[in-house]
Amino acid sequence: MLALAGGAGRLRPHLKTHKMREMTALQRALGVSKFKCATIAEAEMAADAGVPDLLLAGQPVGPNVARLIELTRRFPRTQFSVIGDDAVVIRELSEAASRRRRDAGGDALAGTGLEVLLDLDVGQHRTGVPADAGAVELYRLIAASPGLRPGGLHAYDGHIHDVEPEVRATRCEAAFAPVAALRRELTAAGLPVPRVVAGGTPTFPFHARRADVECSPGTCVFWDAGYATTLPDLPFRPAALVLTRVVSKPGARRLCLDLGHKAVASEMPHPRVRFLNLDDAEAVMHNEEHLVVQTSRAAEFRIGDCLYGLPWHICPTVALHAEAVVIENRRVAARWPVTARARRLTV
């Protein structure tokens, strides 16, 4: 990540992949000071780990507004920011942040307080607003809201994951063009746009070429079989595996493994895992606790034998486990809690 970005200052890596305090510490030791997260629990984990600059990349709604404001109170050394795409939510954030400042004995003037980045829809159609006149009005609302200040623009292009780098680059440029134009328009209108946070792992190399953009890759910190297959141009290596054992042999060519839905991400079609020591395994059944595979090598394995699997999607796989077992020189060196897999820590 550091090599592609050209330095730690260009990075705002996403914590949602690893959710671990220890991994956050490793990234900070390499000079990364800005981070991005998806949940209040991830935000609390990061702030408790001493992260100085943290973006919550999920518009807070319902009780999450108060939870976010409470984090700003409990962790004053962390600069929190958040994304927003709705006028009602922006006003709720303004009211909550203003109340927090008054309770703390400070003022609630516009231009101070919690930073809000306008979330832009650049083609995924999941969250955000188009980079048009409506976006300008929402940004003006953020700038004029007591307790808030405009933090810039957020543009996640998660719909772009073409295998061919040239195609991916072209689509990335087309998706980002309205963002750049909006930034110029806002700046010309006298509105501050401190930062643009853009992209995920697939488009990371292309956004890294822009000197004025913060890159926010996530998956590449561990990598997985999915991206290794669909993004062969990216120079990342796997760092996280699942370990499973043969628990039954229901047939001459079948192995039953204790790698069910509760142990490896199962939201995608098979293959959901690729085994380092059983390359011809083909999934034939997947349940809560079991994965049955068909293989010509079934006779080579005994009950209790281990298989090492590279998940197709590592992020939700990590969230299924309470801890990660750290291996150094073929030995167990530590056990790291996956702290932020929890829906709630204390806030």
Task: Characterise the protein shown here.
With 347 residues, the protein is an alpha/beta fold. The protein has two domains: 221 residues, TIM Barrel; 71 residues, Beta Barrel (Lyase, Ornithine Decarboxylase, Chain A, domain 1). The chain contains ten helices and 15 strands. The strands form three sheets. Strands 1-2-3-4-5-6-7 form a seven-stranded parallel β-sheet. Strands 10-13-8-9-12-11 form a six-stranded antiparallel β-sheet, with no helix packed on it. It has a two-stranded antiparallel sheet with strand order 14-15. Strand 8 and strand 9 form a beta hairpin. It is globular and about 70 Å long. The relative contact order is 0.13. The model has no long low-confidence stretch (mean pLDDT 96).
Present the secondary structure layout.
Elements: H1 2-5, H2 21-29, E1 34-37, H3 40-48, E2 53-56, H4 64-74, E3 79-84, H5 87-103, E4 114-120, H6 133-144, E5 148-155, H7 165-188, E6 196-198, H8 204-207, E7 214-215, H9 225-230, E8 242-248, E9 254-257, E10 273-275, E11 282-286, E12 291-294, E13 306-311, H10 314-318, E14 323-328, E15 331-337
Parallel strand pairs: 1-2, 2-3, 3-4, 4-5, 5-6, 6-7
Antiparallel strand pairs: 8-9, 8-13, 9-12, 10-13, 11-12, 14-15
Helix pairs in contact: 3-4, 4-5
